[in-house]
Amino acid sequence: MSAFAPSAPRALGGPLVVWENAFSSTELDRIAAFGDSLAREAAGVFVEEEAKKRITQVAWVERREDTAWLYRRLEEMVQRLNLQFYKYEIRGLRERLQYTIYEQAEGGHYGWHVDHGAATPEPRKLSLSLQLTDPHTYEGCDLELSYGDGVKQAPRSRGTLIAFPSYVLHQVTPIVSGTRKSLVIWASGPDFR
Prior knowledge:
Layout: E1 10-11, E2 17-19, H1 25-37, E3 41-42, E4 54-55, E5 57-61, H2 68-86, E6 97-103, E7 109-113, E8 124-131, E9 139-140, E10 143-147, E11 150-153, E12 161-165, E13 169-172, E14 175-177, E15 179-188
Antiparallel strand pairs: 1-2, 2-12, 3-5, 4-7, 5-6, 6-15, 7-13, 8-12, 8-15, 9-14, 10-11, 10-13
């Protein structure tokens, strides 16, 4: 068995950047087990009329002693991605991490939206999603982004960190079978100028 060796992040065209094998299987199992231990709630939306646009369960990963390693690691990764690809003025991860669960039993999905974060003190600038589930264990539930000349599907590989500007229109298609888990991260900063 070979030692874990993370890859380097790479652009997939337009604003989409992926970092395959960003975390080891052991780390992914640790994140998922921790997320599963948290209290879940139905995900909300900012505009009540859009409530049917999003059906999923979420749990919030607070910054504390037992999650410090995860926050530290993600902040280092966000800084690297930003420096290499985006060059935004960001101040780090000021929001809690969102552990997200899409289940076939409830028809999990999240329609087209942007991550504006209306209740956040500073605008979200980068949105990231860490794929925690083996893609062979579920069908549907694809993260799709709309930019340029059409819709692009993000990679589904377990351990892949997907990054894009928070203003990019994106969705998670309905899950057909199984369960998909991911960790959603936002990096914020002062208004764009």
